[in-house]
Amino acid sequence: DFLCISLVNGFIQLRYNLGDKTIILQTFQKVHTNGNTWHSLKAGRVGNEGYLDLDGINISQKATPGMNALDTHTDFFVGGVSSLNLVNSMAVENEPTSFTGCIREIVINNKELKLTTADPKGGANIGDCDGTVCGYTVCKNNGTCKVENSGFSCSCPQEWIGSTCEQPIQCSQNKCGSQSLCIPQPTSFSYTCVCALGWSGKYCDSKIQFFIAKFTGNSYIKYTDPYYRKRDLQYSRISLNFTTNQTEGLIAWMGKGEDEDNDFLAIGLANGTLKIVINLGERISVPLIHSKYSTCCDGRWHFVTVVQNQTCIKVYLDEELIIFEDIDPQRKYTALNYGGICYFGGFEIGRDINVVTTGLFQKEFIGKIKDVVLFQDSKKIQLMKAEGYNVYNGNYGN
């Protein structure tokens, strides 16, 4: 399988092969080669149907039915490859040659690649294309960069301040405590403080301790499993207690939650009932929904356990086995490679639940979680020692 974007006689060409045939799309207009014009290029596919857009002019091609997943499992190359004989002969029209020019702002599946010296795995013969200290993203939020003798300066739009226009003007004199986040409220020309885990209060200046985590919305805990390298990922297990008065919400997500290649095990609510979704690498997530009992709005704690034995999934709700299913009898993928990352209640601030889970869950969790145990560990996770925001003491009251 491959997907390749190349410049052919001045035209942009997209070629991809999903395992059965090579599909080719090419722009109608040529790119400017004067070295002074930046072009905006969008290319990709939905299933086996491809699209190519150069400076807003779009072409697409409906492919005949066939393979619809790009299964590469290789590095992603920009501008060239480490050895030209690695390029599939069907990926380019002529003999492959490296790209000469400038590339910036690469976004893959809504995630921007950082074209720095530190982020890529490797590279060679790459230089600075801007030629000044400004670059193209030095000034944030549509600020204008100006080269100075001592470096650069940013001219900021009215609602932003700071050396790189990084701070909302509403937060310029905020009183939010250490490690908290200032969230501007433009309509009232004010702000609110979002507290880091272990802090509470209007300005996040009160230290708290808890063993029951209370999620109020726009909340999350990100836990890194210190024993991940020692786990047998073909036999995973997670259990926890939760209570809520909401009918929708993501309770737990074992997995990185970064792109479509990430394995995950998810526990949440949909229409007031328990919803379990597991992806072991096949990129096809089949939700397991138990609709017999409602798990919201009854004021009770509910105990849920999900056990993955290769492709066999067992789900227990309040110690009753409610789901027992083999999600892939062919045993193509049998391990939950979750990267040692577990989210509870939601994802990082600004990451939409619906977008990250590709519609599997609609909203963040509002309620309480306690007694989280991974695999067969003898001790519960200490949620207080994880990363998180907007999570409070749920030990008492509502």
Folded structure, characterized:
- It holds the Pfam family Laminin_G_2.
- Residues 1-129, 210-398 form the Laminin G domain.
- The chain is mainly beta.
- The protein folds into two domains: 2-112, Jelly Rolls (Sandwich); 213-393, Jelly Rolls.
- 1% of the residues lie in helices and 39% in strands.
- It contains one helix and 28 strands.
- The chain has one helix spanning 353-356; strands at 2-8, 11-17, 22-26, 41-46, 49-54, 57-61, 107-108, 111-112, 144-148, 151-155, 160-161, 167-168, 181-185, 190-194, 199-200, 206-207, 213-224, 235-244, 249-254, 264-270, 273-279, 286-290, 302-309, 312-317, 320-326, 341-344, 366-374, 387-393.
- The strands form eight sheets. Strands 17, 18, 19, 20, 21, 22, 23, 24, 25, 26, 27 and 28 form a twelve-stranded antiparallel beta sheet that branches. A three-stranded antiparallel beta sheet has the order 1-2-3, with no helix packed on it. Strands 4-5-6 form a three-stranded antiparallel beta sheet, with no helix packed on it.
- The longest helix is centred in the C-terminal third of the chain and has 4 residues, at 353-356.
- It is globular.
- The chain starts with a strand and ends in a 5-residue tail after the last strand.
Can you summarize the main beta sheet? 12 strands, antiparallel
Top CATH class of the largest domain? Mainly Beta
**Class by helix and strand content?**
mainly beta
How far apart the termini lie comes to 53 Å
Strand content: 35-45%
Which spans of ≥5 residues are poorly predicted at pLDDT below 50?
Answer: none
User: Using DSSP, what is the number of strands?
Assistant: 28
**3D shape:** globular
Chain-averaged pLDDT: 86
Radius of gyration: 25 Å
| CATH-derived architecture of the largest domain | Sandwich
SSE pattern: EEEEEEEEEEEEEEEEEEEEEEEEEEHEE
Which percent bin holds the helix content?
Answer: under 10%
- Total separate domains: 2
Given the structure, what is the number of helices? 1
Question: What do we call the CATH topology of the largest domain?
Answer: Jelly Rolls
GO biological process, one term: developmental growth
Domain Laminin G: 1-129, 210-398
InterPro entries: ConA-like_dom_sf (IPR013320), EGF (IPR000742), Laminin_G (IPR001791), Neurexin-related_CASP (IPR050372)
Disulfide bonds: 102-129, 156-165, 176-193, 195-204
